[in-house]
Specification:
- This protein is mainly beta.
- Helices cover 9% and strands 36% of the residues.
- The strands form 17 sheets. It has a nine-stranded antiparallel beta sheet, covered by helices on one side.
- Helix 3 runs parallel beside helix 4.
- The termini are far apart.
């Protein structure tokens, strides 16, 4: 077993909980912390351990603490829904822990407590063979025992803990172990001793308001104490000001205090200003009996009925996400480093809020939300019905609020999830919360709010009987596989931002909860379609929605803009911050050129300038102007990169300057030197030029075969016009000096809608042009239609087994859906082939297969030097690259997450499908999700003009 000294070494590390701050001064009036366990998933300490059943059971061995024992190879795995499946065993093992520790003689003059930050699920604690207190029930709550009378001072002491994975309280099991998440067993959060003076403060509760007012309760049973002294310091401990007391009263073991700090900076997610409140309990001679330091932020929260949620007088909208405390290789045991990484990713997505789903997180996660800036909804763990019984529920509410009350990030409490609330507990939060935060019933209409989950788009009519409630779904746009999240968010957010009673919402959810199965050779298990619903993968791999959210939730909102010849450099902008003036940010403009398919992927910057942003208060609109260099029309694209006041990138917008035809004209080889010949034989048109042999059908003009220097390029069977049934009326060839043309004309058909009183006849055409330098041009003209439900475009075949990757100029690097177009950037990208099923397998991102927007050119890399390059001269064209592997019908039974792809393998189309969510088809998710495209009436046909280079 590792020595106790190892645990003490950890205390010097910078990521130790704020509880350890007082260790820098171990005088008699300070609190000393001594860890018996490690501090996180990356720093465990071995304890003796016995597991009763399952893997590695029936013998004494050792286990790292803190940990979930399944991830250490013990017991058995269960997902919360397993009880509904009669074929699955519910594992009910218990674990026995032993840990020796030394209690110095000087502790006799102190009070000693043992603190458990989290144990799953029922915990019986003994010190030297004697019970430390009643069995604790509830997996997600900190609890402690006073053990001064049980210790042997100057000697080794034995800590024994029996942990029952399944609670003896039925309501706890319904709340915590019959839920839609992985369930584990073990001492999974840290364990430590808390050594305090005999006359000590048990805890403090602080309400620090935006105007500097401080209301505080100091809980102490000391008979020597006659008062409390306060001063405020910065986070480095530098004293800022004494805090003279306006009032101080003592009653029933509680000092109630009022004071006011001067010239403080308020806390909000954009500027999370924090201070240290130094509290000293003193006797009649002003001697300090005990001192504590609490990190606080000054802010005022108001929930105004029929109006909105206000922080520091500013009405806010949540740009939020739900988050589990989870890591694949350690389950619910996490670390402060992981908390920092997760919050930084949320902030990078321009989020400002997080909901604890569905239980209180580690303390360090709340500390990071305080310091980096996120609004928090803190939640007690219950799941549907039946709810927690009142007796145990009262203890759980107390443990939650007492631990978390002083975090400025927490705006609201949630009394359980989705009908799991015990309404007898609603009033208990205010008993322990000095700030009297409001309580939610997530997914219900309750008090001033409506938090209905997974609304369809038409919810924004908001004309029901609860239309006077503040509306924010605490779960929406469920992100199973590649659906939801960014898909649909633009439509939803337009409504949420502009609807007065909307307070935003919380996406479901942050990360795929796929766990490492130690019993299945390390397999990453998301339990089918139950836990594959993250914006990021199990280890934080960024999926496409990550960047879509980043753009849509950008606090600098730019209207969509297209750069044409008369571009004047003016952009319309809206400040969607809540607490920041736009002029505190920066935007840099870059005019760039790209190299061609055979060149580098690097940008050639022609000109760069800083944009002068206007002074716009939150919610104000205005304009800014990008300076136009004299050579701006020679650029291929304009990039605008926004940086916030802390130096973080908000987003980079990209705007093509040249059309595809203009750009490709510069980079395609012009030479037409060389011989070209055509032969018609056995139903085929065979053309040879520059060592390339093309074979076309003389009945359909479809490309049947390409060979270069005798080597087969397996690109063929196209162009098939999608959804096309017209008959061919002519197929002609035309031989010229340096090129050969093959023209196919289809029958005239009426393109007007059924209800039109006139007829508009149009004929589709396919025209091949083979040049003497070997280039192959294709122009396809397709009659336009006002309303389209099928694909408009063309398709070819190319075996997936021959594809190794792709390099292209267009939007990327992620694929798009009709209702997830935002978040890409126009530039040269390269992706290697992968067969990732988003959230389910592979976890390699970006996914290789799918639709890619704004195609200019693409090189398809073949495994056997058999690839080719396409130049697309037609604007607003999507490249379809192969067909993604879908989840199994069992996991997506209604096909909401498996959009239908065109026939063939490589396609060029003018419209693409939307993707749904676990609970909704795309048609229920707003205009961009609709399966019908409105192209409008157009006198001209749809044209697809491509050049192939083999």
């Amino acid at each position: 077993m590792k020595k106790l000294a190892l645990a003490l070494v950890f205390l010097g590390m910078s990521f130790v909980s704020l509880k350890a701050q007082s260790l820098k001064n171990t005088s008699n009036n300070k609190t000393e912390i001594q860890y018996l366990s490690g501090i996180d998933k990356d720093h465990m300490v071995d304890w003796d351990f016995f597991c009763s059943e399952g893997n590695n059971s029936g013998k004494w061995t050792t286990i790292g603490v803190p940990s979930c024992w399944e991830l250490q190879g013990f017991g058995g795995y269960n997902y919360g829904h397993d009880g509904r499946d009669k074929t699955k065993k519910i594992h009910k093992e218990y674990g026995l822990y032993k840990r020796s520790f030394f209690a110095p003689l000087q502790w006799k003059n102190n009070e000693v407590k043992i603190v458990f930050e989290g144990v799953m699920t029922d915990a019986e604690v003994k010190i030297n063979g004697k019970l430390a207190g009643e069995i604790h029930q509830g997996a997600f709550y900190e609890f402690k025992y006073t053990i001064s009378e049980l210790l042997k001072y100057g000697k080794e002491n034995l800590l024994e803990v029996k942990v029952n994975k399944v609670s003896s309280n039925t309501s706890i099991n319904f709340a915590e172990r019959d839920a839609d998440f992985w369930i584990f067993g073990g001492i999974y959060r840290p364990v430590y001793l808390e050594i305090v003076p005999k006359d000590f403060m048990d805890r403090i509760a602080v309400n620090a308001k935006a105007d500097g007012t401080i209301e505080m309760d100091v809980f102490s049973a000391s008979k020597k104490a006659t008062g409390v002294q306060l001063f405020l310091s910065d986070l480095k401990g530098n004293k800022i000001q004494d805090l003279p007391l306006d009032s101080m009263n003592f009653k029933n073991g509680k000092w109630s205090i009022a004071t006011k700090a001067k010239n403080v900076k308020t806390w909000n997610p954009e500027k999370p200003n924090l201070y240290l409140l130094n509290v000293a309990l003193v006797d009649k001679s002003k001697k300090v009996l005990h001192s504590l330091t609490e990190r606080i932020g000054f802010r005022t929260v108001e929930i105004k009925a029929g109006d909105g949620i206000y922080v520091n007088g500013q009405r806010i909208k949540f740009k939020g996400v739900n988050r589990h405390s989870f890591y694949p290789s350690s389950g619910r045991t996490t670390s402060k480093a992981l908390s920092i990484a997760h919050v930084k990713m949320m902030k990078d997505m321009n989020m400002n809020a997080v909901r604890m789903s569905h239980y209180p997180p580690d303390v360090h996660f709340l500390e990071v939300c305080d310091s980096l800036g996120l609004f928090v909804i803190d939640e007690v763990c219950t799941w549907h019905s039946p709810h927690l019984d009142t007796k145990v529920g009262e203890k759980i509410v107390k443990e939650t609020v007492v631990r978390d009350v002083n975090h400025p990030s927490i705006l609201l409490w949630a009394n359980g999830n989705e009908t799991g609330w015990n309404t007898e507990l609603d009033d208990d939060y205010a008993i322990w919360d000095i700030q009297k935060r409001e309580v939610l019933h997530p997914w219900n209409i309750f008090n001033k709010t409506n938090t209905m989950h997974y609304p369809s788009y038409h919810v924004f009519a908001y004309d029901g009987y609860a239309k006077d409630k503040i509306y924010f779904p605490t779960e929406f746009l469920h992100g199973l596989y590649d659906g939801g999240h960014g898909a649909g968010l633009e439509d939803y957010w337009k409504q949420m931002w502009n609807m007065p009673l909307s307070a935003g919402g919380f996406l479901w959810d942050f990360a795929d909860e796929a766990v490492v199965r130690t019993d299945k050779n390390g397999f990453l298990d998301a339990d089918g379609n139950h836990a594959a619903d993250g914006i990021v993968g199990p280890y934080g791999e960024k999926e496409a929605s990550y960047f879509t959210i980043k753009q849509i939730w950008s606090p600098i909102y730019l209207e969509d803009r297209f750069i044409k010849n008369d571009f004047n450099g003016v952009f319309r902008v809206e400040n969607r911050y809540h607490f920041t003036n736009l002029e505190e940010c920066k935007i840099t403009a870059k005019w760039v050129q790209f190299e061609g398919p055979k060149g580098s992927s690097k940008l050639n910057v022609l000109a760069q300038s800083n944009v002068v942003l206007p002074s716009l208060k939150p919610s104000e609109k205005g304009t800014f102007t990008v300076a136009l260099p004299t050579n701006w029309q020679t650029a291929d694209a304009l990039y605008l990169t926004a940086i916030d006041a802390t130096g973080m990138e908000i987003f980079t917008w990209s705007y093509p300057v040249k059309t595809p035809q203009q750009l490709n004209t510069r980079i395609i080889a012009k030479s037409n030197n060389g011989a070209i010949k055509m032969v018609k034989d056995n139903g085929q048109i065979i053309v040879e030029a520059a060592g390339i042999r093309y074979v076309f059908s003389d009945k359909t003009s479809l490309l049947q075969e390409v060979k270069k220097e005798g080597k087969l390029i397996p690109f063929h069977n196209g162009p098939i016009i999608l959804g096309h049934k017209d008959k061919i009326i002519s197929l002609t060839t035309n031989t010229q000096k340096d090129k050969i043309e093959i023209l196919t004309v289809f029958e005239l058909k009426d393109k007007s809608p059924d209800w039109a009183s006139h007829k508009e006849l149009s004929s589709d055409q396919i025209k091949w042009t083979i040049h003497s330098n070997g280039l192959l041009d294709l122009e396809v003209q397709i009659k336009g239609k006002k309303q389209v439900t099928d694909y408009k475009g063309i398709t070819f075949s190319f075996p997936e087994s021959e594809v190794s990757g792709m390099k292209w100029l267009g939007d990327g690097p992620y694929r798009v859906w009709r209702n997830r177009m935002k978040g890409t950037q126009f530039k040269v990208w390269e992706n290697d082939y992968n067969n990732t099923v988003t959230g389910e397998s592979g976890f390699v991102y970006p996914e290789f297969k799918g639709f890619f927007s704004s195609l200019y050119w693409a090189t398809v890399k073949g495994k056997n030097n058999n690839g080719f390059t396409i130049y697309c001269h037609s604007p607003h064209t999507f490249l379809r690259m192969l067909t993604p592997q879908n989840p199994t019908p069992k996991e997506d039974p209604k096909g909401r997450l498996s959009p239908k792809f065109p026939q063939g393998d490589i396609s060029f189309v003018k419209n693409i499908p939307a993707i749904g969510t676990k609970f909704q088809e795309g048609d229920k998710m707003g205009p961009q999700g609709n399966s019908e495209n409105y192209f409008g009436n157009d006198d001209e046909p749809i044209v697809l003009h491509l050049t192939f280079e083999f």
